[in-house]
Amino acid sequence: MTEKGESSGGADKFESQRLQKLSAIRESGIDPYGSRCKGIEPAEKVKERFKADDDTQQAKCAGRIVLLRDIGRLIFITLRDRSSTIQIGLSKKLLGENWQLAKLLELGDIVGASGQLGRTKTGEITIWVAADGLTFLSKCLRQPPEKFHGLADVDQRYRQRYVDLWANPEVMERFKTRSAIIATIRQCLTSKGFLEVETPMMQTIAGGAAAKPFITHHNSLDMDLFLRISPELFLKRLLVGGMERVFEVNRNFRNEGLSRQHNPEFTMLEVYQAYGDYNVMMDLTEELAGLCVERFCDGEQVQFGDITIDFTRPWRRAKYAELLKEYAGCDIDDIEAVRAKAKELEIEQADMDDAVVVNEVFEATVEDNLISPTFVMDYPAPLCPLTKQKASDPRCAERFELFIAGMELANAYTELNDPAVQEENFKIQLRGQEETMATMDSDFITALKYGMPPAGGLGIGIDRLVMVLTGASTIRDVVLFPLLRPKSPDDGV
To answer: What's the DSSP call for residue 64?
Structure first.
């Protein structure tokens, strides 16, 4: 793949020139792909410990060359490592015989540098590399992006994330933040007595959610398996087994479309707490997400594209039926009015159950309006086969979804633990789902017959949460290697 405006012939020319320097490095007796580099410090730490009045300080860093200025007998290089950047100074006088190696360096090369710390006349903290302080660690054979523009082509950034990360520092920072968000969530949950567990990613039954699965085949057992669409039913089995508080940061797979909010492989947090309910999960969701806002955002007013999200707590809690009335103008019990609204919205509803039509109208009229965090409570029971119904109104299920910036970020239930009701709900759910290959999970019903404690369950979309907290406009910006359509041979590497 080439830079925008750069022909493939130009790329070949640059690589040819770099191969010549690779040969020159080898001819000088130096391994252009280096070895272990001991005693290095992060650049940020070196800069933090620098003392202007101490001319005996030494430092050793390693990183990629992202800026190189050759001014004759001096070469100034900016190295970038995992922490920051630092300038190194190469002087012909100091390097002696190693000056020839210095003249072979190019943008993108990875080197180690050790020597005395000082400041330049412009005040830049600099490692003045000693005679034996320059170590070649890896040769870059492809022309890096322009220093002032980074890796600008969006498609190329996703396909060559290995360049994107070091060419665009803000991308590296976003993924560091993603990692820190997940670590924060884990720490909070474990401090509350939750156990982190692992459940199967290959399953014999595609269950736990209504979605089309990916299929694989186990050769030794000669059986088809499904990449999981949800870990829910396995985590509930652990409640039966006596693990009263469990969570999993899991990868799920759904054989569905790609969009700004959807990647077929995505990361979810799922949490289950015995003796809780969806109100407990609501409080936990607000605490987890609110903690991340405190740690990773500048205040409670967070900019996301051209909208401002107000994370001030407590967050709004609104009933599904009330929101439908507010934004669609329909009473949830007046199905004729709801279907008339669906027709107005050009929703194809001929073969839809009433509850599905209601939800289609809800999605079309309500969700985009839920900008600041809103817990949507008490969904129609027919939409929630794994959820306990409200004792005060069996038409509603004790379920909430959290919406932020018009996106669903979390989904939670008061979990259904009556095996007879669950089995009947599964039968109803499976009608007309032949395309998803969903089948009855009889073993889960058996598990419920042994007794599952009342519980609350929660799923939070990690990718979408990171999007909101980092201001990323698409899920591809928060997934290191998003799924992309293969390029044709004419498109280049």
So the answer is: E
What is the rounded average pLDDT for all residues in the chain?
A: 92
User: What interhelical angle do 354-365 and 320-328 show, nearest 10?
Assistant: 60
Half-sphere exposure of 35 (CA within 13 A, CB side): 2
Are 108 and 131 in contact, with CB atoms under 8 Å apart? Answer: no
Percent of the chain beyond pLDDT 70? Answer: 94
The packing angle between helices 335-344 and 320-328, to 10°, is 50
Q: Whole-angstrom Cα distance, residue 373 to residue 316?
A: 7
Contacts of 385 (CB under 8 A, 6+ apart): 416, 422, 425, 426, 428, 429
Label residues 187-207 b or e (16+ Cβ within 10 Å = b). Answer: eebeeeebeebebeeebebbb
Which H or E run includes 216?
strand 215-218
| Sheet of 202-203, strand order | 202-203, 223-227, 215-218
Per-residue HEC secondary structure of 157-209 comes to: HHHCHHHHHHHCHHHHHHHHHHHHHHHHHHHHHHHCCCEECCCCCEECCCCCC
Summarised one tens digit per residue, pLDDT across range 391-407 is: 999 999 999 999 999 99
Prediction pTM value: 0.91
**Strands 223-227, 265-274: parallel, antiparallel or unpaired by DSSP?**
unpaired
* Count of CB atoms situated within 10 Å of the CB of 456: 24
Which strand (E) or helix (H) includes residue 323?
Answer: helix 320-328
Cα Rg of the chain (Å, integer): 28
DSSP string spanning 262-302? --SEEEEEEEEEET--HHHHHHHHHHHHHHHHHHHSSSSEE
Q: How many CB atoms lie within 10 A of CB 380?
A: 21
In this prediction, residue 435 carries a pLDDT of 57
In sequence order, which ranges of 30-152 are alpha helices (DSSP H)? 43-49, 92-95, 99-102
For 162-207, the pLDDT digits (tens) are: 999 999 999 999 999 999 999 999 999 999 999 999 999 999 888 7
Q: How confident is the model at residue 153 (pLDDT cuts 50, 70, 90)?
A: confident
CB 317 within 8 A of CB 375: yes
Q: Is the pLDDT of residue 148 over 50?
A: no
DSSP characters over 398-425: EEEEEEETTEEEEEEEEB---HHHHHHH
